[in-house]
Amino acid sequence: MNGPMTAAQAMVAATARLRAAGVADPARDARVLLAHAARIEASRVTLIAPEDLAPDIAERYEQLVSLRAIRVPVSHLIGERAFYGRQFKVSGDVLDPRPETETLIEAALAQSFNRVLDLGVGSGCILVTLLAERPQATGVGIDLSEAACLQASANAVFHRVEPRADIRQSDWFEAVEGQFDLIVSNPPYIALEEMDGLSEEVRRHEPRMALTDEADGLEAYRRISADAARFLAPGGRLLVEIGPTQGHDVAALFSQHGLSDVRVVPDLDGRDRVVCAKLV
Q1: Whole-prediction pTM value?
Q2: What is the CATH number of domain 85-278?
Q3: CA angle 4, 20, 87 (to 5 degrees)
């Protein structure tokens, strides 16, 4: 991308470079990064396609494409990721919000709740979304990572739910008080032996502690299922995201610890994605 180029030429060059680097969707990424460099909406990129890139935009674009070529996630480069119709600020301190997690949101919203606890709040995408969708609700979000707590707090402010969101640093239930009619979690569920199979974007740029328990991928569910009943109000629900092969094991853990109405909910691809249970 040396010398004057139109926006269209720059995108073509960037797409080829990203494709050569093994990026999964190089044309989309080239377009999104150009929009970010030019500080315009991605939908407006076609309007500037015939125009020469200003030197400052070309320089920013070059930097962004260079970082994407070494597999820095697009969300980290532009600082946000879409989730359930909202934009969430993200960084390398938290997991990127993922479309599969919207299955958990849909299951949570299927019944009413007034007080929600999010275990492992991360970016805050789950807690903030639930509070935004249910204006009468209040919630607590906990995370062992102080940086994640700060990120979740920022997203709560950004989406104007901060008066109803209490973000705390905690090792699971350690700093939690009271009872909740909904507990949700997307815990680290990647088994240690599966880590090498993750994409470079995930393995190198997302927080390891949010990905794996350094064991069989079920440790978080053991901790959650052992203590959840103490923090659930009568009739309260527990919903957790799982890996697609973990439904049977997590459901069994919930049943063993006295929870009822245990069921596994698939995502839009038909893979097991959420385990739901209730305290009767």
Answers
A1: 0.91
A2: 3.40.50.150
A3: 80
